[in-house]
Here is the input.
Amino acid sequence: MSAIALALALLAPVGGAPAKPAAAAFELAWEAPEGCPDAAGGHARIERFLGRSTGAAGDPDLRAAVTLSQQGASWLARVTIDDTTRTLQASRCEVVADAAAYALAAFIDPNVAPPEPADDPPPPEPQPQPQPPPRTEPEPARTPTPSPPPRRRSPLRAAIRIAPGVAVGP
Here is the structure.
């Protein structure tokens, strides 16, 4: 065998074509109440952010769980990746589902573009405040007219009768 044939034989891959890297494992548990995106919708959101399908070669293995729930007027997404859990909050289920999907997409590919801001409904218009009644000029304060000073009574102002027909006094 010539030297060239031997070099080519040593450089040729064994078994034909070169081996491809193994696809990453991607497991997603997605729970949501009726009216919110289901598991297929959550998976589609993640792929929309990535711009490709999940589990591609070079992606990290990912085992994640997302639970969507409503608490009062807010929607929550509990996102668990491995042993780490984070809670996201938004005003609508669609918005919190997008946030959870983006968090998972960013874990898979840290270079994923951030989502466009959600169009939350505008805040409610403030209720008009009742108008105060029209202001009228106050009437001038009446000053009471001073009453005359009380009369001083003389301590001896009584008449004393000593006997019929005889009196002492004013």
